[in-house]
Amino acid sequence: MSKIPARSGFLTASIRSGLNGFRLAPATAYPSLSVDSSRCASTSILSPLFGSPPKANSSSSLERHRHNSSQRNLLGCRLYASDSSLPAHNKVPLPALSPTMEMGTIVSWQKKEGDQLSEGDLLCEIETDKATMGFETPEEGYLAKIVVPEGTKDVAIGKLLCIIVEKEESVAAFKDYKPSDSEPASPKKESKSAPESPKKAEPEKKAAPEKSSQSPPPPEPSHKQSSSGGRVGATPYAKKLANEKGVDLKNVQGSGPGGRILASDITSAPSGESAGAARGASAEGGQQAGDYTDVPLSNMRKTIAKRLAQSKSTIPHYYLTSEINMDEVIKVREKLNKLLEKNAGKEDKPQKLSVNDFVVKASALACLRVPEANSFFMDSFVRENHNVDVSIAVSTDSGLITPIVYNAHTKGLATIGSEIASLAKKARDGKLQPHEFMGGTFTVSNLGMFGSVNNFSAIINPPQSCILAVGGAVKKIVPCVEHGYRQVTVMQVTLSCDHRVVDGAVGAQWLKHFKDFLEKPHTMLL
């Protein structure tokens, strides 16, 4: 990173290209606000967040690409800054770590102010709507200032996280640094449109009392702040924060002109005010304070709630249930586990195949037989996927996540079992990478290991068309020609289908293939 002079003009020193790492000549490195992002959509790992590159023959697409490029400069790229009173520094904003991420939580900082940074060092851990992921240092230097402290929740994408400088002696200059762009955009706009202070607003209202219908009345001693229309006077951003935090605006004392509630009133409001609203609501329902605990939603839980509610309300689900004889799978599993134990080293822990490994393999092969079950509904067309990437539902402390076994139809049982065990551990430890859980063409959700669930129905994970719900295996008495009756082990599965893609008869065909593979496991070798 090189110093950029405060005055505009040609740079007096070369800088490093963000595209290929080569040094650029001063004439090449001319500073201009119109320069496009050094990472275009076709090369960026974040390209799914901003769309594909524009077509050459489309002027409108080109304009959208230019607009998206300017957004990438703010959200996904490093921001070099120059200030006459500060050394040259690098502003690092919060990036989008998943396509659905809107905000993040700073779980921990792995570096302290003043620490030397090498490119690729773990800078901090960020909780997204999917998982907790490490954010690596974008370049070498020294961590001069941490702008967003550890534990801060709901940090918007693009908000300044920290400052990095090139030289160690430049760190001290940022000791008392307070960024002007660290606040959200909405409160800034409100503060510009509102009077500078409440003192200037009060005389105006007293001088024109007859225009009470056009201006809100002075604040009353009580906590309730209302305009003449009976609505609570609050800025748009304050209303947004109040809605997210579950705060009743009627119980918040506004500090703005005329008692107007600002965003700062919501963030700094004592817990008793929001709790008071909850107590008032609970009293009407007959609950007493202390009878319940309000648990804040994690980013993952918010995403789960949003996506599943959308799926259930927009996708026409239907369900098909089948009972499968698992005796042959149990026999084959026992033989294969003995073989794995025999081939394992003396110091190695032998791998053990689970029934779920057979379920995943049979699901993938059935999807090859019935491609509709391995398809996406894309509004104006249906996309049939050629590879079967099976998402496996894994329960974690923070919520449900679905890591993926890619190309499950091409892998053996031992490989599938090993990958599932590794992905499940990483999911519970919060160490999954985005590519390990983003995607998938078919989902398997297995609750059989809990021992108390015989069958259930699962909600489809869009844009997928199907999800298989697997219950536990139970003993059952069935008729037998030779002995009159015999005992078998059966397992119930329920296939949830999107009727826009998979008709009832097609779903039944998939279940038939799936059942055949499990009841005759040797056919999975063909």
Task: Tell me what the structure shows.
- By secondary structure, this protein is α+β, with helices and mostly antiparallel strands.
- It folds into 3 domains: 15-174, RNA polymerase II/Efflux pump adaptor protein, barrel-sandwich hybrid domain (OB fold (Dihydrolipoamide Acetyltransferase, E2P)), CATH 2.40.50.100; 186-200 and 223-285, no CATH class; 302-525, Chloramphenicol Acetyltransferase.
- It has helices at residues 47-50, 59-75, 185-193, 198-207, 236-245, 263-267, 271-285, 299-314, 327-343, 355-369, 413-428, 434-437, 504-519, and strands spanning 15-16, 23-24, 79-83, 86-93, 103-109, 116-117, 122-127, 132-136, 141-146, 155-156, 160-165, 317-325, 375-377, 382-384, 390-392, 394-396, 399-401, 404-405, 442-446, 466-480, 484-498.
- The strands form 6 sheets. The protein has a 6-stranded mixed sheet with strand order 12-21-20-19-15-18. The protein has a 5-stranded antiparallel sheet with strand order 3-4-11-9-6.
- Helix 10 (355-369) packs across helix 13 (504-519).
- 29% of the residues are buried.
Rough outline: globular
Radius of gyration: 30 Å
CATH architecture of the largest domain: 2-Layer Sandwich
**Share of helical residues:** 25-40%
How would you name the CATH homologous superfamily of the largest domain? Chloramphenicol acetyltransferase-like domain
Percent strand = 15-25%
CATH class of the largest domain: Alpha Beta
- Report how far apart the termini are: 58 Å
User: Which regions contain 5 or more consecutive residues with pLDDT less than 50?
Assistant: 1-79, 182-229, 271-284
Strand order of the largest sheet: 12-21-20-19-15-18
CATH topology of the largest domain: Chloramphenicol Acetyltransferase
Q: Structural class of the secondary elements?
A: alpha+beta
The number of helices is 13
Q: How many E strands?
A: 21
Number of domains: 3
Described by its quaternary structure, the protein is: single chain
Sheet of most strands:
6 strands, mixed
